[in-house]
Design goal:
This protein has 835 residues and is an alpha/beta fold. The chain has 33 helices and 8 strands. Strands 1, 2, 3, 4, 5 and 6 form a 6-stranded mixed β-sheet that branches. A two-stranded antiparallel ribbon has the order 7-8. A hairpin with a 2-residue loop joins strand 2 and strand 3. Helix 16 runs antiparallel to helix 17 and helix 20 packs across helix 24. The longest helix has 38 residues. The protein is flat. The N and C termini lie far apart (76 Å). The C terminus is likely disordered. Bound molecules: flavin-adenine dinucleotide. Flavin-adenine dinucleotide (FAD) binds next to strand 1, strand 3, helix 19 and helix 20.
Amino acid sequence: MTFLTMILFSIVALYIRTKPSVTLIGLAVIGVLGSWWSDWSVLTIISALIVFGIAAVLVWPNPLRRNISGSILGWVRNQLPTLSDTESQALKSGDVDWDGELFSGKPNWNNLLKEKRFQLTAEEQAFIDGPVNQLCSMLDDWKITKEDYDLPKPVWEFIRNNGFFGMVVDKKYGGKGFSAAAHSETVMKISTRSVTAAVTVMVPNSLGPAELLQHYGTQAQKDHYLPRLASGAEIPCFALTSAMAGSDAGAIPDEGVVCKGQWNNQEVIGLRVTWNKRYITLAPIATLIGLAIKVVDPDGLLSVDINRGITCVMIPADTEGVHQGARHLPMNQVFMNGPTWGNDVFIPMDYIIGGEQMIGNGWIMLMECLSVGRAISLPALATGAGKHCSLTTGAYAAIRTQFGRSIADFEGVQEALEPIAGYTYMMDSARRMTAAMLDRGIKPTIPSALLKFRNTDLMREVVNDAMDVVAGRAVISGPRNFLARVYQSLPISITVEGANILTRSLMVFGQGAVRCHPFLIQEIEAASAEPSDEVYAKFDKAFFGHLAHALSNVTRSFVLALSFGLLTRAPGDSGPKQHYRQLSRYSASFAMMTDISLALVGGELKAKQRLSGSMADSLVGLYFASASLKRFNDEGCPDYLLPLVDWSVQKCLYDIQMALDDSIRNFPVAWIRPLLRVLVFPLGLRTSAPNHVLGTEVAQLITRAGHARDTLTQGVYINNRPDDAVGRVLNAFKLNTAAYELSKKLHLAVRNSDEADGIKHLELQLEDHRALLLDWAKKNGVLSTQEIQQLDTAMAAVYDALQVDAFEPEAFEATQRSGLSEAVVEQQPPVANVS
Ligand SMILES: Cc1cc2nc3c(=O)[nH]c(=O)nc-3n(C[C@H](O)[C@H](O)[C@H](O)COP(=O)(O)OP(=O)(O)OC[C@H]3O[C@@H](n4cnc5c(N)ncnc54)[C@H](O)[C@@H]3O)c2cc1C
């Protein structure tokens, strides 16, 4: 009995995470009471004392325990992944927030729910409702991409004059000083109108000279450049990528050699810079080129030893020797993008962002700023695509009839519509939660990486599904097409700001496991420091804390899996409680798997990218489900959003289960797989994906007018003009919805009437058929004159919305004449290698 009580007590203590010392004292009390009650033998008492003694040595710091942890320290040094300079700098950059809670295995939901919600100020909302809407109304994406290959001049002027380039610049420098929420909302809305315009606006506000100067610039640099950047007098770009170094940006060969040179008729110390960059957004027209280079000082001209890491400089484009102007055409999107190069271009030290003392600190500067921009731009653009697809594809599915029924009624089509709506809710929720995090001053390194890769991946799924639903109408290019342009742009978002494969399989879990772990950073720091008493003490504390944490997660994973999460507490009045419980359960399993991966795979984790990728998927599921619940709670748990939040969380839970299952089945250390299976899935894989009933409900939220459709698609730019690609479909949807009862009445009358034999085969949407049908309806008093007019107008709009473009041969000849076939630029920049 005593033994069983002790086991039960230990499980409860580990589960609720009492202090190890308290647990041990509790066990001792149970032992003493047990020995007294049941008259233990001397041998039992001695054995119990020995076990207690060993436990006491491990629980309270003492020289013996120090010796144990000291030996483990040596082992840890070998187990730790070897980190490059850039990786170790990246690990230290940014902050840990909700991602840390998920890694802890015991997320505190109340903390999440009480955090600041996504919100715009009145001034920001006015900007979205005013200049942003106006800009959108000026954009005709077909004309921009097929005829002009550029944004029209008035659009460029409007963007500059209305401060679109200065959204992140502080108000005191003339910028807008907008919150991340406003920045995200702006990019999202513009992207629903034109990807080219959205990218043009988002790049100067993302990773670039403005953001870098604001955080790291000298006062003189800030005073000079920030007002010019905010007003659009300077167009910036930032060039990191070079031909031989894409994802491995730390390997750029571009160099700046410290040397003496002439500047303003004086001899000064500066840099002779050689670079050859490609894919650089805005480079063809930039007036201020931000560059990442490596600095060398072969002649020892600087007074201090320099760190040979990356350095960020900015070079005015009119500096002698700067090459720019040639353009790439990324997936036929026409935002300005192209190469830039220069050979031995002399610049003064003032051109180093932050001045001479920031030489070699570029990587950490980029990582910190990247985490901010990356959390905003592409997640917003991806959400914009999701909203756009929900709005247009839902409407199109409702008005398109085949086999005598709206295609929205076919289960097969609903299966494709379901993720369009569900994923859009997830993307939007995660975008909002992360933007609100930024507005609390957090630099979310891991959330920004996972948000970027997951939102752009989901965007790809959503747009592909939308293409399938809209089918031929989506495939035929032309001014009527409302999907093809965003479809074409998908691979760009997947590739930029950290290509998705690399981000998922290397960065998110690889960095997160270390960065967000409650003890690992302290262990790593101790393991990489010079040995000293202080270091040993620090490691000892972290290691034994880690051990208790790991044991607790093992216990929680098993107990919560067995109890279906019912033992955890869900926050009160916060919506569907079972979702919180299931997420707590999977968070514990995820945290346990993290510890076991670190302990058994250790330094090899970097190479085990498939394990890392599956674990990243689990984290993504936890993060996106949390975001969906947070948003639902922030919005007051309205009933009409319940299907969306249920779908999102169930889908995430199912994905987490499958990702953990994949990690266990393929765990690199085979002998532990059965144990992991018992600890994570003692009752087997029991989490189901959203069922068909819920799926249909979610699909119908976007094919029917209502609060859910309005909330889901909030923030899309809507032009109601019937000659607009989107306006045409929305107009038809609206009129069709309003005339639905009338068309039903007519169909019923036709079906029930013997006299209607001659018109039974007629299609209401076809112009000539419609006239006959409506005539019949009038003659037979089925519909009033006013009703006939309403139905006629609605059906004409539907007919028009179903049409695609066709071009006369002359149009193709004109295109061939002005096409790019003869204007392809063969770029031959010098090979950058000056060291
Ligand atoms: C339209 C466009 C705009 C851009 N704008 C800018 C800009 O303004 N400034 C700028 O500096 N750069 C810019 N880029 C560059 C962009 O950031 C790079 O394209 C990106 O970093 C990937 O480099 P890469 O294309 O050379 O792919 P590669 O590095 O060749 O990668 C190829 C594939 O291998 C994967 N991969 C690479 N290494 C690993 C690894 N260790 N583990 C697992 N997978 C790996 C990648 O995920 C990718 O799928 C832009 C690119 C494009 C296309």
